[in-house]
Amino acid sequence: MFPTKNTFSPTAVMSPEEYNKTLMQCWKMLQAGRRVSIHRSLIQITGNDIKTAAFLSQLLYWLRVGTEVEQRDGWIFKSIQQTEYETGLTKTEQRKCKDDLKKLGFIQTGFFGQGRNLAFKINIDAICKAVCAQFGVQNMSQITLEDWRKQELDFFRIYFSDSVVYHMSLVQMTGDIYIAIMLSDILRNCAKNGSETSKLFKRQRLFSTATMLEWENRTFITRTTQNRARKFLKHHGLIVEAHYLRNARIFTHPDGLLLMQLLKQRVRLPKLSQSVKPHAAHPEMQQQSLLPQSTFSENCGNIAKPATPQVLNPASSGLASAESCNSLIYKKPTVFSITTTTNSHEQSEHSENGHNDVVVVVDKCLNQEQQARAFVAVGKFSDLVFPPNIHHEDKSSVLKIFNQYLPNADLETYQQILDETGAGGKNIKNPLSYIVGITKNAAKGEFEPTRAKQYRRQRENTERNRANYEKSLRPKFNEEKNCLQTAEESRAALREYLKKGTVGSKQ
Fold first, then answer.
1. Considering only the top CATH level, what class is 35-166?
2. Alpha carbons 186 and 254: distance in angstroms, whole number
3. Where does residue 459 rank: exposed (0-12), middle (13-18), buried (19+ CB within 10 A)?
4. What are the residue boundaries of the structural domains of the chain, listed by start?
């Protein structure tokens, strides 16, 4: 039984305190099992190859703690099955690691005994010289096997103490070292802030947050592999991720309860096929905010309450009816925070009642992506022209920013802010944050558009040229009349041809 269906999860209705205690219990269970440490210095000298560094780190571990290594002159007997059990590396992966390490001159291989047992000998001196070259340190004197086993030199404490750690039970569950490293890193960051004496422990769910660059610096896993690992974890419901205001930082909630169940049952999760798309395993949990309720209940502005869905609040013990600003600005929300999904009849009633709220007209039959692309704002924002560097999913958030920080401005001011943002183009990495800043300045009377006028002239000229081009493509004749004439001429030609055929046959 695999948790790949979009079903309700018990984790979604847990209070923050229950969720955090379950997660800490899961972390203690993992810590009690076997762990593999990969020295960061070895990852760097092997060309950021995590698996090769893991293979070498495990050999160095047995070189230090092995009982008969000195009697064998540094040779370590280790079979393929033993290495796979200890590191999770398959036979094919081990073969590649051995070839790479032999090319670098870090190991030697040999077969000894009656059964030709596989053995390795590590060149400690070559490894230490490569580390010195990598970090620009003066070369160490000859390093011996005894020096490595005693670990008394400061060189070892400085360059062989920091490690990337993963749990073997997670490798056995996921079948992938990279996924196990990422999941171990997520759980470690959650547990780091999991103090039960903290006030937030009862109010806020534990989470791990990092950008993809920070993740790469911490784990040496490339972005492509990160996306594949996160896709796998989200598909099986092991994590839930959130992005706020299209920020590069990713907030991750692991499901400790599901993890413990899978670990106890020793389940091996199936790999994803290329056609399978990741889905949110627990939609109730996915909409939760990462902040205490007292923090996000302020400054929400004049926001129209959507009818659905009910958002689970992590600061309460159950499903809360109040919806937070942050949870509604989730990357792909079901409804936008300042909009209501309505039809034209409801829209006209809204106007007659004198409401000045923003209304977005969206067809209910469309899916979420189509609804975002079918964005049509009416009311006081109906004539705004959005620049291309504002994502279609962020347009409602822009209106929310206007409605919150600058509710009484005229349409010209709003358009100047949008044109100023459009003039920045790709140089503006986060358009929403940029709009928040200049909108606040406009509210204080400090906004002075520098590039908006020029951008507006360019935009109007582009629109005018496009309209003229489309006008030039229109036919200068009546298409319907022309089609009728063509059909009549064809029928006349056919009748003439038939007459000639009839006369020829009579003769």
1. mainly alpha
2. 7
3. middle
4. 10-33+175-288, 35-166, 336-465, 477-507
> Of 454, 440, 453, nearest to 407 (Cα)?
440
How far is the C-alpha of 47 from the C-alpha of 103, rounded, in Å? 12
Pick one of 3.40.50, 1.20.120, 3.90.25, 1.10.10 as the CATH number of 10-33+175-288: 1.10.10
The Cα angle at residue 69 between residues 137 and 50, in degrees rounded to 5: 50
| Helix residue ranges, H only, 12-73 | 16-31, 40-45, 50-65
Q: How far apart are CA 157 and CA 80, in angstroms?
A: 30
432-476: pLDDT as tens digits: 888 988 999 889 888 888 888 888 888 888 888 888 877 777 655
Element (H, E) at 497: helix 479-506
Task: State phi, psi for 167 to the nearest 5 degrees.
Answer: -100, 135
- The yes-or-no answer to whether 10-33+175-288 and 35-166 have a common fold is yes
The pLDDT tens digits of the residues spanning 192-251 come to 888 888 888 888 899 999 988 999 999 999 999 999 999 999 999 999 988 765 667 889
Task: Please give the Cα distance from 350 to 103 (Å, whole number).
Answer: 74
